[in-house]
């Protein structure tokens, strides 16, 4: 009976950890995650390695394999994959090139520690190390499990004397200092279990000291995130990183090198130029464009567009001026661009009489904003900044800086009308294959909103907007959609002006009404005009054409009826667009009936009564006769 009880107890308390296969339960080739490792092996080989791996304790969940990367479901799965696998394999993959935890590349030192008991494998015993943490809040992950057959509770696993358990993945955040880690396997009679732990210390150059070796203590690997540093500068410039020369730029001014991630001191030097020094924090591939400042200049100039620039829009260029030495009486000139305003120290600068902007004395890096109108075409464009200043010794400096920027193509096409007073159809067509809202706003010359309308533009679809222009004047049409914005200036002249507001004529005489009309378009336009009066039973039509941009005077003549009763009549003049039959102009003209008169050639509608003409003729003849008698 005692033997039976002992046998039952043995099955209850004896445990073992068997090898298990990689978990593909979340496999999805369309997905990636924030937890991955970059390896040397190609994707097929990585899949084979994962398929053949025998994991102890816990198998990582793999989501996808793509581009030499293995993507894991969680941080726990990542930590298990980059730690010791089992008693026969230190790690599954030949070499990790990079490890990404929660979207960030990490520096990791992996230390493997394995402890057993005196009755276990040859030379088996507890293992103990001390390790140094250099920075506060350093992440340390313990991936630990038991190997072999063991009796529950007999093994131990401690950090600074405090048990942390086994067959677990546990994370600590440790401050700077020295820490002790020890582990020991099951020491019950007949057991041969060991405790295997991988310490994942999220730092580089981690130092540790072996107090007791146990079965094994060794560094599995040290991963230091590396990124590509590319520098575009002057040709033949020396590049220094943290005080050490790492290379020289080629004949095109280009330099490229793989460097450790992190904060570095960068210096670039070349004869005839001021040294350039800065602090850079590299977390991924970095590209730097650095123009060295000639020693005949006093400022280093860097610049960047505040936002994307589009044709016929307004852009802001942020410019940094870094004085090599204190600059006195600094003046700036801008050429090659239509400047809207310049903001310096939070204030808008006025342009002086000589066309410059006064910046004054500059002893440290300053920023200014240049707001300007972009050109109508997309592509690369530039303008020039001229800087003048002197140093404390009175030396004068004058430099020209070319500011280059890119104007992006609009994500939509615009079809604009020949602008006129009234309704104008604007057609907007998507070119990106995306759906988004488009907003049109019409502003008057003072910036006040006159009209606006918004519509949804479907993929490669079009939308029409009916822009209403109330009267002649200057306007700006703002069009925005899909993150882009552009402006179109609109100038509407008064297209029709009535010249003859009042006309005088006698019964049976010819009266003429005149008006001027401007064709603001780029093509010949056709019109017709009507002059009507119900009381006079008058209805006259006249068609005419106006050349592009021509200001034409149009005359409509008619004979005053002999049976006119009243001494004045109101005529109605209307002008139409022949293509659309749209009414462009309407106004009243007053016709005044005078006594029979003769028109005076060259005086338009002016007339003089017949009696006055006869009297004038008699006086003229008499004067001539008198002059002849005197002779």
Textual characterization of the structure:
This protein is mainly beta and 631 residues long. It has 6 domains: 15-105, no CATH class; 108-223, Sandwich (Jelly Rolls), CATH 2.60.120; 226-289, Sandwich (Immunoglobulin-like), CATH 2.60.40; 299-407, Sandwich (Immunoglobulin-like), CATH 2.60.40; 412-492, Macroglobulin (MG2) domain (Immunoglobulin-like, Sandwich); 496-594, Immunoglobulin-like (Sandwich). 8% of the residues lie in helices and 54% in strands. It is built from 4 helices and 52 strands. The strands form 14 sheets. It has a 5-stranded antiparallel β-sheet with strand order 5-6-3-7-8. A 5-stranded antiparallel β-sheet has the order 15-11-17-9-19, with helices on one face. The chain has a 5-stranded antiparallel β-sheet with strand order 14-13-16-10-18, with no helix packed on it. The longest helix is centred in the C-terminal third of the chain and has 21 residues, at 610-630. The protein is elongated.
Shape: elongated
Q: Count of helices?
A: 4
Number of strands: 52
From the alpha carbons, calculate the radius of gyration and give it in angstroms: 45 Å
Second rung of CATH, namely the architecture of the largest domain: Sandwich
How are the strands ordered across the major sheet? 5-6-3-7-8
Class per helix and strand makeup: mainly beta
**Low-pLDDT ranges:** 1-16, 600-607
Mean model confidence by pLDDT: 87
* Largest pleated sheet: 5 strands, antiparallel
Broad CATH class of the largest domain:
Mainly Beta
CATH topology of the largest domain: Jelly Rolls
Distance between the termini: 177 Å
Overall number of domains: 6
In helices, the fraction of residues equals under 10%
- What is the percentage of strand-forming residues? over 45%
